[in-house]
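New to this. Explain these tokens.
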Amino acid sequence: MWHVGDGRAITVTRIDTGDDAALARAVDAIRAVDPDAARGAVDVRAAAAREPRHALMLARGIGVALAELGTIESWDEPTRMWLSLWVASTDEAGTLTSALWDAVAAHARRHGVDGLRAGVRDDRASALRVLTERGMREVERSQSVVRRMDTRPQAPAAPPGIALVTLAQRPGLLEDILAIDDEAIPDIPGDSADPPGAGFWRDKLAAGEFVPATVVAALENGAAVSYAVLRHYAGRPDVADHDFTGTLRAARGRGLATLVKRAQLCAAWDAGVRELRAWNHLDNAPMRSVNAALGYERGPDIVSLLLEREPRPQRP
């Protein structure tokens, strides 16, 4: 129980992801706070199955807010966790965030977690204030964009010497994709992520988060030199996120990233996707330019936060 001080109190409970009804209510609450949230019960349950330290917390009393602790995927940081936060921009946002923080910190300490990462919209000022007061610091900002599709986009024409294929058509492309990751991911501006390995790809493909039909590559001389992959959600099959788009250094400056993303729009439409989302570092001018040329509309910036120590509850 987290007492507000005016006779009211906030109760924070951990959701049992094995309880269908409780998890469904939690997902409904997430979408009430954030109508754009794409993850559903199946997605949350899959995250919990992959991560023994996973926790989904629900705060109630002076409003509703949620927090989730999950695996960090983009960095090789096994002793840290990713904090997701769903808090509306209201007068109670700071107090709700504080209550959730104490529950999250206590859970993290019990599991030996020695750091956190998070991404929070820049229009959630109260939540950002609380997190920074608790020791999280800003490491970068990203531009969020979205493209909604009402009709199937026009398929692009590949230039001479370039062939457009999907991973469904060429399953053997994974080795080429990993080589692009190794070269392109370290070049991303900001707090650059670690390139994933084949195991990461196999897990995402097996879980249905990566779909071979929407992994699009540009081939030159039979090898992939540029590619793009989407992340799909069981909770919202009509929404997908651009997980990564990369091009080998020697092939850059020829419009191949735009080409594969144009082809990916068609592949996404054919897979039932009607809304595509992306996040790009503010210094990543090339990819921001690509998205602008493809008609993506800008949303709020995302503030990336990092805590480099054990999280501590504010109240004992």
